[in-house]
Amino acid sequence: MRNAAPLVLLLTALSTAPADAADPVAQPKPREEVVSDISTREISIQSNFTGIEILIFGSVDFSGAAPDQDIYDVVVVLRAPDQAIVARRKERMAGIWVNGPGKIYPTVPGFYAVLSTRPLRAITSDETLETLGIGLNNIDFGRVTKSGPDEETFRSTVVRLKEQQRLFQEHDDGVAFVGRSLFRATVDLPVNVPIGRYTANVYLFRDGQIVSKNQSTLEVSKAGFERMIYLLAFNHPLIYGLLAVALAMLAGLAGWAAFRRE
């Protein structure tokens, strides 16, 4: 009879255990994950290049809840490699306009496009957007030289000029869901798009919180005769300069020979 007490206590503990712990079917809800890709992974720029439209598409996996319970937002950011930009203020001196003091921004993206399912501030907080660098106002231009009270003026001017060149784009309705979990977004690359390896970051938000991120890459390069000239100019600048001067002299001599008077 003395050995029966521990057995009774063990049986009592098992009987009072939570039902979920003994139920092998009860499992935590899987975390949502975004999967994306680009319609093309390589773009070749030749003399007849007039711009191109690319498609960024994807889906939300493990979205187990009903559509009226979970609200998903997708933000797509396409960014080209960074480049240094000098922003100068024009000043009038002796009746002519000259370049005045300026600022150097070392990490300005050559191309930047952000597309979303709705306005960014309606998706998440300003702090999250700033942390992730999402939006034209949150692009990190690097540490500027001689920062001062007119810093915001210089920065806004750079953004405005880039927008005029279609190198900076922001569309708060650029991403559309097709059905429950499929989405798509189109980005217009202009004719003056810079070359390099682009990154396409796709962010998945739910209730203002980022729950998943996916990244893919795109290579934009010159091809044909344009590529040869580009490589010659950057890899052998002295030879490129001499050839340019020689071609200019030949063109001048040809014009003089064609239009000279006898």
Molecular structure report:
With 262 residues, the protein is of the alpha+beta class. The protein has helices at residues 4-15, 19-22, 120-123, 126-132, 151-164, 225-235, 237-259, and strands at 33-38, 42-45, 52-61, 72-79, 82-93, 96-109, 112-116, 168-171, 175-178, 182-189, 196-206, 209-222. It has 2 domains: 29-222, Immunoglobulin-like (Sandwich); 224-257, no CATH class. It is built from 7 helices and 12 strands. Helix 6 (225-235) packs across helix 7. The chain is globular, with a radius of gyration of 29 Å. The termini are far apart. 19% of the residues are buried.
Largest sheet: 6 strands, mixed
Described by the principal axes of the CA atoms, the overall outline is globular
Name of the CATH architecture of the largest domain: Sandwich
What is the number of beta strands? Answer: 12
Q: From the helix content, strand content and strand pairing, which structural class follows?
A: alpha+beta
Radius of gyration: 29 Å
Fill in the CATH topology of the largest domain. Immunoglobulin-like
Report the average pLDDT across residues.
80
Count every helix, treating DSSP H or I runs of 4 or more residues as helices: 7
Helix share, percent: 25-40%
CATH class of the largest domain: Mainly Beta
Distance N to C terminus:
135 Å
Can you tell me the residue ranges where pLDDT is under 50 for at least 5 consecutive residues? 4-27
- Compressed to H and E, one letter per element, the order equals HHEEEEEEEHHHEEEEEHH
Overall tally of domains: 2
Strand order of the largest sheet: 2-12-11-4-7-8
Tell me the strand percentage band.
Answer: 35-45%
